[in-house]
Specification:
Radius of gyration: 23 Å
Number of helices: 9
Largest sheet: 9 strands, mixed
CATH class of the largest domain: Alpha Beta
Structural class: alpha/beta
Helix content: 25-40%
Mean pLDDT: 86
Length: 256
Amino acid sequence: MWQVLLNCKCVGNTAGVMIVMIMAVASQRLPAQTLPLVTEAWPPLVQEIDGKPAGRLWALSEQVLKRMGHDATLTFVPWKRALNLVAREQMTGVVGVARSPERVRQLQFPQEPLLLIETVVFSRRQTPVNFQGIESLKGLTVAVSAGYRYTKEVWTSTQFERLEVSSIDAGLKMVLLGRADAFVVDRGVGWFEARALGVAEELVASRQAISGGYVYLAFSANVPKSLVEGFDRSLREYRETPEYQQLKLQYEGPME
């Protein structure tokens, strides 16, 4: 798929040099094509709505690839399978993956991440929690999402009472109803849900994160390095555009 076979027979020194130069440049350019990407649903950052991919991670990946002249498709599968499909070169890339030593050996990561994922503390604007560390939650009732992979100290700390909730909107509602003092959730996901519920003005999110890390669009090992580098460059350029600023406004809220 990615290999370009070039054959030429040069006649004459000048013509031969020109042909070789033209072909050398052309060989560095990738033809426009549809790139098959894969991920696991992670609403609202990446999800399927009415049979189509949606969410911030998808919108960002798709727009940058379009700027490069490529279309893309996105398939939703369980996370482990998503990683395996790309590692085995059966898919071009995986959306929303964090770097790790093992993944760096199997995949190609651009330098520029798609997004910084931060787990923060949401609380009522009228009674904000000044989060400066886990000890800031001492004596409080803190809502947590059942099954979410928080840091170990969130699940094991004895300084606060945990109230497990089944969904993001349930956690925010617990805070607004006063049944929880705070809710620990991803910053972007929390603000997205707060806006959907119409309660964003009643909440604040901590400036300091409990935990966080970058996620990327990582490519399979057989993808040309020029595509990975091109994506990195195009992503940096896209971040300077008004369109990117509009995309940010859909998901981000003020930090307190």
